[in-house]
Every structure is written in structure tokens, then in C-alpha cells.
Amino acid sequence: MTQYESALEERPTPQQRMRLSAISALVGGGLLMITGIALLSVLNEAEFAIVSPIGIVASILIALGLPALYASEHRWFGRLATAGFWTMTVGWVIATVALPIAEYGSGVAFIPTLLGWLVAFLGALVFGVAVLRSDAATTPRLGAWLLVAALPVGLPFAIAFTTYVMGEGADPWAGPFLLYGLAWVVFGRYLRSADWARTASAEVTSD
């Protein structure tokens, strides 16, 4: 019994779990920005082999950051925010699982990876619009604007930049990665705030 109680005491509290999730969001967003910037430089095969694992780690960390964003904002969710958030979540998780398989296993896995990114960025756009429309949202509006811009601005920007500036068309997802990663840096910095984490912890405990 004593050993069991000791194990329970060593388990992280809800507040600690949310803090870890927020840190994952912040670090993952930074790594995804680095990935996007690197891809914009039009990598050769050797350089891509270095950048690819960074993108995989970034994707995993952002997936781990999703619970903190949900815990912070779900109280005001309506139908639009709910649809956007869960579409973004499902798409990102699918891409996160499929990406390492595509890179180091079967190339067929690139199909669900690409579809996952597309779904995630469409969901991010919808969720960003919901945040901007809501007076109850507490996350920074800059992050919401970046979510909205990730696909419709980031995709054509990456194509135009790599084609006309770098002189060679490259990965068009570089632009969305850059803006989406920056959004998660903005969210992650906010989500590390003690105030909302304490509130979320109290709600979980009372439940």
C-alpha cells in the first residue's frame, strides 16, 4: 500500500502535465519553423536527411502540445471551433504517425502524410477564424492569424519563393510549416502561463 501511495505521489499533477504540454508546443513550434526555413533554402539530399528528423520531432511535440491548447480554450468552443480544432488535431496526428513511416519505411505512407497535413491546415484555418470571432478566446490573436494564413498564404509563398528567388521549385509545405510553427511558438509562450494552468488544474481536480 505504501509503495502504491508513493507511486501516486510521484505521478505528475494535472498542472504539471499541462505545463509539459505547453513546453512541447513551444519547442515543437520552434523546430517546425526551423524545418520550414530550411526547406525554403532548397535542400540537397544530404541536407534533407539532416532536416527530416527535426521535422518529425517537431510534429510529435506539436501533437503533444494539442492537449494544452484544448485545456486552455475548450470552455468557449462552439460548433465552428470544435470542428476546426478536432479537424486540425486528427489531420496532424495522422501526419505525425505517417511521416516517419514514409521517411524510413514505405513511401506509400507519404499519401496519408500529405492528406494529414492538408486536413490539419484546413482545420487550423477554421479554428483560427473561430478564435478571431470569439470574445471569450484567451490565446493571442497573432497565433490565430498565423493559423488562418498557414495554408492560403504559406503554400503560394513557398512555391513563389523557391521558384523565383531560389531558382528551383521545392517542397511547397515549407511556407505552411513556417507559419504554423510560428503560431505554436506564440501559443506555447502563452500556454506556459501559470494562471490558465492553475485554472485547468483546478477544473480537472474538481471533476
UniProtKB/TrEMBL annotation:
* Top-level lineage group: Archaea
What keywords would UniProt list here?
Membrane, Transmembrane, Transmembrane helix
Q: Which residues cross the membrane?
A: 20-42, 48-71, 83-102, 108-132, 144-167, 173-191
**UniProt protein name:** Uncharacterized protein
Species the sequence originates in: Halogeometricum salsisoli
